[in-house]
Design goal:
It is built from 8 helices and 10 strands. The protein is α/β, with parallel strands linked by helices and 270 residues long. Helix 4 crosses helix 5.
Amino acid sequence: MKHENGFDFVEYPCASGKADALVIILPGHANHPVMFDKLAKQIRDERPNTDILIVKAPVPLGASKEHIRKNGARGADDLYTWHKLSKNAGENAKLVLSHFFNRVPVVDQLNVFADAQLQKRGLGGEQLMLFGFSLGGAIAVQMGTRRAVAPAGVVNHSGPVFPIISPKSRPETLFVMGEKDDFFYAGKMKVEPAPPKPPKGKLKKAFDNAVNDAVSQVSLHYDDSLKRLQKAKLPVEDIVIPGLGHTINKNSFTPAMDFMRRKLGKPKGP
């Protein structure tokens, strides 16, 4: 595991030592980079002259060894997520609202990381591909729309899309979801509003109520997420994989790899 520009990551270097593109993989909530080792190797097999990075989310969850094993992360030190979670419902509501306005600090931090990694390789922003799974997919979409130069593409695999406010760029996006995904497809999942708190003045009470009302209306369902991409005028390809749950398999990897191959162009070098 390397640590550069504020993040820990696993690097899969290209065959020639001179990359023609960079793929950054963003895991989901309660994931670890070891869970995406096979995915990275499959991408490298398809594009041997591309550098691939799996970024570890910054917030450890303190998972037990048994929980780590059950999540398919055998050998990992912990499971990680992208945001510091709070037991305070109001704080969590404000976190969701920060997604609503696409003003999540970790998104900008990740773009600083991506820029530094591109510069290190002598690559431009158009040679970057973002691949996010679950919550990592939501982060990947926000990263792409906050970059001055659109990346080559964004793959959002099994992740929600929050409202996209004033995008700086409109990257070509592949939105992949499993038909049996019980998080974001099989059910109309909504974010529950925080329970009411004792009033602390009229303005405080009005603000908290407004936050809760707004958050409770943010559906994370696939159909609503797709509409947000379309409303923001992002060029989007969408695909629902029959029988697939909240995971990645051959049937979802194949269209994702085809998308990446098309958007990154013909590999250069040997």
